[in-house]
Specification:
2 copies of one chain form a homodimer. By secondary structure, chain A is of the alpha+beta class. In chain A, 31% of the residues lie in helices and 31% in strands. The two termini of chain A are 33 Å apart. The complex binds magnesium ion (2 copies). The site of one magnesium ion (MG) has 3 residues of chain B, from loops.
Chain lengths: 179, 179
Amino acid sequence: KPNASIAYGGRGMSFEADIDESNQFYLMKEKAVIHKKPTPIQIVQVDYPKRSAAVIKEAYFKQASTTDYNGVYKGRYIDFEAKETKNKTSFPLQNIHLHQVNHMRTVVRQNGICFLLIRFFYTQEVYLLDAPTLISFYDNQKERKSIKKADIETYGHMVHTGYQPFVDYLRTVDELYIK
Amino acid sequence: KPNASIAYGGRGMSFEADIDESNQFYLMKEKAVIHKKPTPIQIVQVDYPKRSAAVIKEAYFKQASTTDYNGVYKGRYIDFEAKETKNKTSFPLQNIHLHQVNHMRTVVRQNGICFLLIRFFYTQEVYLLDAPTLISFYDNQKERKSIKKADIETYGHMVHTGYQPFVDYLRTVDELYIK
Ligand SMILES: [Mg+2]
Ligand SMILES: [Mg+2]
């Protein structure tokens, strides 16, 4: 049902933009403080023109060593990565880097709330996959370097989407982690 | 006693570098997962040369809208800013931006652990100032746009410094917030 993409979040917005909007909503409602981390950049050359702002003239994108989002909700630490896929039947694991998985391991050990949000582009369905489940799929991948959508439906948790916020993942966090 | 700067952390390292080292130590010991956020950059122009990495050709530094460090310790959310001053008798409040103070307000409301670490360059003393205390000084500054060192000694908490980690702020966090 590709029409779902018109109803929800399908305003030509990226999944990350929809999550940023949700985080803004949570912040405004004093529900949680969760931000996207800036993209890590390796700066090589900076010019300092007189009487104006420093200009970065040469820099490169660095691979993120952690997940993209973190913050605080009801005193608990929240940490997650968000990924959208155009694949209809599975989530390709090359979307997640090893160092991100390893970061998730360390967060889980510290008793942080850690997960992956997956949006299937064509249906606009969003699932929350708890980090220990994701890590288990990641560590046990063999030839098939992906998680079947059926498995995400079984082991993941559907996230309510709508308006204000677009992606209400904290409702799912409440059910799963806070109670 | 300027010699303290030779004994502790005074290896020509910036305060941020010393904190990064401490965070690496905590991570390695599986004590906490705390990272410095990347510097926020406004990217204006990117070149995509054939067969090599994308090159950022024009970009500008953006002012940070949050604090520099955050992460998880014993399940709790940790959030702080670190500043060093060469001032001997006070900490100038222009070192902290209004939006950083406002970010701290939101974190405190969410029951996160939030504070400022101050290092006095000439003595290499490090103090932890709890966010509510900092906010109170910030909101009540009049002509004097600084916090007297004597007040930091009274209302702040001295942080143990040494080796491995250089700045053992989690020991102070334990005493103040965890118990
Ligand atoms: Mg990412
Ligand atoms: Mg800073």
